[in-house]
Specification:
The chain is an alpha+beta fold and 416 residues long. The protein folds into three domains: 54 residues, no CATH class; 126 residues, 2-Layer Sandwich (Beta-Lactamase); 191 residues, Hypothetical protein af1432 (Orthogonal Bundle), CATH 1.10.3210. Strands 3-2-1-6-5-4 form a six-stranded antiparallel β-sheet. A hairpin with a 4-residue loop joins strand 1 and strand 2. The longest helix has 38 residues. The chain is elongated and about 70 Å long. The protein binds fe (ii) ion (2 copies). The site of one fe (ii) ion has 6 residues, from helix 7. One fe (ii) ion (FE2) binds next to helix 7.
């Protein structure tokens, strides 16, 4: 992760801490000395300002604190959100809060394999399970893991956005039978707030993606940047990040942002003249120099969007910026525009560049046939140690089965 992101996180964490401290101490205890009264006044005049820079997971933690302390629902020990991918019918873990180690990080499952969840999604109704032990006779992987970690009761709420399934919100407790009617009643307004901020966060990302799509359509971005390419390279990026998650400590939230932002890597190409972008033959040196400007143009677009759409409240916007800015950097320093080396290149950019090239190699283009994944890996390994991060190549190669699924599911159609 880039250092800037790290600093942002630290800042957000400090703001969150201040928010929680303010709440726990009560206003009387926030003294008048040393400008703390100013901070208090500022907070009172704009209590939501402090939350602006929080990531979804930090917001969830803040709301969880609120539920436990202000509502006195101490025994709500875990809150989590899983997102639904309508294209693959799969659920994936996204954000969670709770002191205990999470039993379900980096977990995905087909909704078809969890009929009880599919049913409450269809009915648009919450479900209370008084004791997860009841699943012991027919355990699914996720219920087994929850039980093993001491969770006993659960309240599950399907989240819909404009009628379409968005995901699920889970509350868990270690106490069997905890989610009584009264407790559920108390939790519901909070559940709505949590669902709304999750939808809002993803909505902001969708606005960015839609803006990009429109810009692409208006400027007739060249044919090889098809929807299929973007779908596949985003999924390869996600697969790599998942396989590297444990070693690097990636959260599900970070992985989701890499996945969402990977397709925007070439956003700057909308600013490249058609004569160069659509030129069928080889580019001259001068033309290639213009082509390379798509990176700086991309950064300018992101920064303009950030400012004009007020997207600084979209957490992890820095992940997007890093992907756009550094996806043509190479480990050996031979990339552009900065010639950065090795680990100085943010990991999200190293991941996306391997995914992008792997998909370009394995796709048919007017001037070449599609390579097999094996041939593509032989090529990447050949360039290993000089251009691409060997760890990223390894992370992709270890997911061969998933690669084949992605290739089959997102095969190029004539419609793109
Ligand atoms: Fe590019
Ligand atoms: Fe690409």
């Amino acid at each position: 992760m880039g250092t800037f992101l790290y600093r942002n996180d630290r800042l957000a964490a400090r703001k969150l801490l201040a928010l929680i401290l303010f709440q726990q101490m009560g206003w009387e205890m926030v003294g008048n000395k040393d400008g703390s009264a100013d901070a208090r006044a500022r907070f009172l005049s704009d209590p939501f300002e402090l939350e602006d820079a929080l990531s979804p997971v930090q917001r969830l933690i803040a709301l969880h604190e609120e539920i436990r302390h202000s509502l006195n629902l101490e025994d709500v020990t875990r809150i989590a959100i899983a997102l639904y991918d309508s294209k693959t019918h799969r659920l994936k873990t996204f954000i969670r809060s709770g002191a205990k180690e999470s039993p379900l990080d980096h977990y995905t499952a087909s909704l078809d394999d969890i009929p009880s969840l599919a049913e409450i999604a269809r009915l648009k109704r919450p479900r209370v399970v008084d004791d997860l032990d009841m699943f012991k006779s027919s355990p699914s992987l996720h219920s087994t893991r929850l039980i093993k970690n001491g969770f006993r009761a659960s309240l599950t709420i399907p989240i819909h956005d404009h009628g379409a399934l968005f995901g699920f919100l889970f509350f868990n407790s270690d106490r069997p039978g905890y989610f009584s009617e009264v407790v559920v009643h108390q939790l519901m307004p909070y559940a709505k707030v949590i669902a709304l901020f999750a939808i809002n966060e993803m909505q902001s990302i969708r606005v960015l993606q839609a803006a990009m799509k429109t810009a692409r359509e208006i400027t007739h971005l060249r044919d090889d940047e098809t929807g299929g390419h973007l779908d596949r390279m985003a999924r390869y990026s996600r697969l790599m990040a998942l396989n590297m998650a444990e070693k690097h400590g990636f959260s599900d939230e970070f992985i989701e942002f890499i996945y969402q932002f990977a397709p925007l890597h070439d956003i700057g190409k909308v600013g490249i003249p058609d004569a160069i972008l659509l030129k069928p033959g080889r580019l001259t040196e001068d033309e290639f120099a213009v082509m390379r400007e798509h990176v700086d143009k991309g950064i300018a677009i992101i920064d303009a969007m950030r400012r004009d759409f007020n997207l600084d409240s979209v957490s992890y916007i820095q992940v997007l910026r890093n992907i756009v800015a550094f996806h043509h950097e190479a480990i050996d320093g031979s990339g552009y525009p900065k010639g950065m080396k090795g680990n100085d290149i943010p990991i999200e950019a190293r991941i996306v560049s391997v995914a992008d090239v792997f998909d370009a190699l394995t796709s048919a283009r007017p001037y070449k046939k599609a390579w097999s994944p094996e041939d593509a890996f032989t090529f990447l390994h050949g360039a290993k140690g000089n251009r691409f991060d060997p760890e990223c190549i390894q992370a992709l190669e270890s997911g061969m089965e998933e690669i084949r699924t992605i290739l089959a599911q997102f095969a190029e159609s004539p419609l793109g």
